[in-house]
Design a protein that fits this description.
The complex is a heterodimer.
Chain A (H helix, E strand, L loop, with lengths): L3 E10 L2 E11 L4 E5 L6 H9 L4 E10 L2 E2 L5 H7 L1 E4 L6 E5 H13 L5 H14 L10 E2 L5 H15 L3 E5 L7 H14 L5 E6 L12 E6 L2 E6 L1 H10 L2 H8 L3
Parallel strand pairs in A: 3-10, 3-11, 6-9, 9-10
Antiparallel strand pairs in A: 1-2, 1-4, 4-5, 7-8, 11-12
Helix pairs in contact in A: 5-6
Chain B lengths: L8 H10 L4 H16 L16 H4 L27 E6 L2 E6 L2 H5 L3 E4 H7 L1 H4 L20 H9 L2 E7 L9 E7 L3 E3 L1 E7 L4 E10 L5 E11 L4 E8 L5 E11 L4 E8 L4 E10 L5 E10 L4 E4 L2 E4 L5 E10 L4 E4 L2 E4 L7 E10 L5 E4 L2 E4 L5 E9 L1 E2 H8 L5 H17 L7 H15 L7 E2 L1 H6 L3
Parallel strand pairs in B: 1-5, 4-7, 5-8, 6-9, 7-9, 8-10, 9-11, 10-12, 11-13, 12-14, 13-15, 13-16, 14-17, 15-18, 16-19, 17-20, 18-21, 19-22, 20-23, 24-25
Antiparallel strand pairs in B: 1-2, 3-4
Helix pairs in contact in B: 1-2, 2-7, 8-9, 9-10
Chain lengths: 250, 455
């Protein structure tokens, strides 16, 4: 049984069925890319895994190491080691980055990290991700540029040390330097204990993060699976080939 | 015993003489008393400034005036600070204690009994006392309001503060007003800051848990040229205390005023932080945070009058409500025809935490001058589901996330207000209210969730 095992997952948002039976396996130590055109449902899968309240699971199962995720609140999932780097990180006015991170780290570790140790770890990770120290005084995501938000998501992952990291369009809106920084950040986190699910429309992030498997989603189902070469095919052929094959019922 | 409605000339004269007040002060009290005879108690249906608090239903003036009783008051939040504060304690209508650090005494700072100061420092007190509440004054706390005039006539415990020109104080001057005995309490404060003086005055309002009282308070502050003044007023009353407060500042040329109120206690609190900007370049920032719970009614009426050119005002009040509570924000900015170059902004934001609470906001602008910059706004909302999701998705339990969001909502008010101990004390008060609340009843607005996904 895979660490993350998704079977026949059906998800609705706003009364519309978006995922129509998704199967996916992911193990710790593995990196999987989930690709697909806009509207195919890949972000919906990310949110469903992380318990976003706008998405309702209407069928199928989704287990992490045997525990059904759909029965857990978002914070319980996070404490099990599930992390979603969001496509659109949320501004939380008046809550400082430091206070937020410390509260989250203590919640996930389920014990309080001494302040000094926390600050040392935090400053270290910030330096690695090229995040300015002035971030610490700012409110969560408030006034952050697109690139700063994405780096802040990876910074959170670095501190929370998840076992499953879902990166939802983390590459979108990043210039090539920022993309490299973020990718290096992800690679630093990688190891035998971390499973990574990279959700992306474009292949460019896969030049910096090596995926063990590539899956392609279309109209709420996974329609193609393969190795890294599948991404190369998409790079040259785009999604048109898949769309056509799907339409032809192949 | 005398109540607010059965005052007599004899009683006032007797009390004034017993306090050793000079003739001019006694005469002034009697003149105010005569004005009260011409004034009815406010009629909330007729009086514009009283529409937001139903006077007859919520306030009882038939109470004995308290002038003596207890002598203890709770520890000041400034006790934990590593600064030596000046402290004046008014308990049950009597100024029971004044302590002034030697360093302040050496600089000529006065913190003393107002009746005594009227006799010993008449040159300072006589021109200032009542100058902001006189009957030719306008605004919410005008001399045409009997609740103000009755304090002019019958205040029982007064504090006088004088910070001489060019004296800058790092430590605050703390005034505790504590009501232990039920009845009517009439505290009075007069503060005068000389030119280029800098000081902060903290008012802490507390009561016994069961004390049933009406506190009718007047605070007048005069900030001379380029003075820097912070007034901080904590309302931490028990749940049977009604509080009518006029805290009025007169701001001269280039003076800088910040006026922060923290209202969490009391049954009915009608709070009037006012500034008259009478000198060019003066600046005022009336700030407020409040947290209203079951049965509480807060009526907050910041009022700023731009009476000179190039003055600035920036009003920001933020409140959270739960239970059957009611808050009213009735801000008013008046810009005189000569106040060219005025820059003013006025905002109120409310967070409705549970069903049954109601927040009203009416930010008024009354402008007689065209050459100005003015903005105003108000918003009432609920906890944002998307913010809540974001925090919980990082492992933070729902209740802790709610607490972070609510305290975060208030932090904007404190911004760059770096007064010793104030933000911590205010957020502690608010945190205690949240901790006592049933967070499972908090309403969350999920409108933002729908915009968050695009596939």
């Amino acid at each position: 049984m895979a660490d993350l095992e998704i079977r026949g997952l059906k998800v609705e948002a706003d009364g519309t069925e978006i995922l129509r039976g998704v199967d996916l396996d992911l193990n710790q130590g593995q990196t999987i890319a989930l690709m697909g055109p806009n509207g195919s449902g890949k972000s919906t899968l990310a949110y469903a895994i992380a318990g976003h309240p706008a998405y309702e699971v209407t069928g199928g199962t989704m287990t992490w190491k045997g525990t059904e995720l759909n029965e857990l609140t978002p914070d319980e999932r996070a404490r099990l080691g599930v992390f979603l780097a969001m496509q659109y990180p949320v501004e939380v006015p008046g809550v400082s980055v430091t206070n937020f991170l410390r509260t989250a780290v203590n919640a996930v570790r389920e014990e309080d990290m001494p302040v000094r140790e926390f600050m040392q770890t935090l400053r270290g990770e910030m330096a690695e991700l090229d995040v300015d120290q002035s971030f610490l005084q700012r409110s969560v995501n408030e006034g952050f540029s697109g690139g700063e938000k994405k780096r802040f998501e990876i910074l959170q992952a670095a501190l929370l040390k998840p076992q499953l990291a879902v990166l939802d369009e983390t590459d979108s809106g990043l210039d090539v330097d920022a993309l490299k920084t973020v990718a290096e950040g992800v690679n630093r986190l990688s190891g035998p204990d971390l499973g990574v699910l990279i959700i992306t429309h474009y292949t460019r992030i896969l030049r910096y993060i090596t995926a063990d498997e590539v899956h392609v989603m279309f109209e709420g189902r996974i329609v193609a699976s393969g190795g890294a070469e599948l991404a190369d095919e998409l790079e040259t052929g785009g999604y048109e080939g898949i769309r056509a094959a799907h339409a032809a019922g192949v | 015993m005398t109540t607010l409605t059965t005052l007599t000339e004899e009683a006032l004269t007797g009390a004034s003489d017993a306090a050793g007040e000079p003739t001019w002060l006694r005469d002034r009290r009697l003149a105010a008393y005569k004005r009260t005879l011409d004034l009815a108690w406010p009629d909330s249906r007729a009086d514009e400034f009283w529409r937001s608090t139903p006077f007859a239903q919520r306030l009882d003036v038939e109470r004995d005036i308290v002038a003596g009783g207890g002598s203890d008051s709770p520890a000041s939040f400034t006790a934990d600070l590593d600064v030596e504060v000046a402290m004046a304690r008014i308990v049950d209508g009597v100024l029971v204690e004044v302590t002034v650090p030697l360093a302040m005494v050496a600089q000529g700072v006065l913190v003393t009994d107002l009746s005594t100061a009227a006799a010993e420092h008449a040159d300072l007190v006589e021109p200032a006392l009542g100058s902001l509440t006189s009957s030719n004054s306008e605004g919410t706390g005008s001399g045409a309001d009997r609740t103000i005039t009755v304090n002019d006539a019958a205040w029982t415990a007064g504090v006088f503060i004088h910070v001489p020109a060019e004296v800058e104080l790092d430590a605050p001057i703390v005034i505790q007003v504590h009501a232990e005995t039920g009845g009517a309490h009439l505290p009075r404060v007069l503060a005068v800051l000389g030119h280029h003086a800098r000081a902060s005055v903290y008012l802490e309002h507390t009561s016994g848990a069961d004390t049933d009282a009406l506190v009718d308070e007047v605070v007048e502050v005069i900030a001379h040229d380029a003075a820097q003044l912070d007034v901080v007023s904590f309302q931490q009353w028990g749940s049977h205390v009604d509080h009518l407060a006029l805290q009025k500042v007169q701001a001269h040329r280039d003076s800088r005023i910040r006026h922060l109120s923290v209202t969490v206690g009391g049954r009915t609190v009608r709070f009037l932080p006012e500034t008259d900007l009478i000198g060019p370049g003066a600046e005022t920032r009336p700030l407020g945070v409040y947290f209203a719970d079951e049965g509480q009614w807060f009526d907050l009426q910041p009022y700023v009058r731009h009476l000179a050119p190039r003055a600035t005002s920036d009003v920001l009040f933020k409140g959270a409500l739960q239970g059957h509570s009611r808050t009213v924000f009735r801000g008013n900015i008046f810009v005189d025809k000569d106040a060219v170059g005025t820059d003013t902004d006025e905002n109120n934001k409310s967070l409705i935490l549970t069903e049954g609470a109601r927040a009203d906001a009416t930010p008024f602008l009354e402008i007689e001058c065209s050459d100005i910059v003015a903005g105003h706004g108000s918003a009432t909302g609920q906890i944002d589901a998307l913010q809540l999701y974001y925090l919980t998705s990082r492992g933070i339990p729902r209740e802790e996330a709610l607490r972070l969001i609510v305290t975060g909502f208030f932090r904007e008010v404190f911004g760059d207000v770096d007064l010793p101990g104030v933000e911590e004390a205010a957020l502690t008060e608010i945190d205690e209210r949240i901790a006592a609340a049933d967070l499972s009843r908090f309403q969350v607005n999920d409108a933002s969730l729908k915009d968050h996904h695009d596939e």
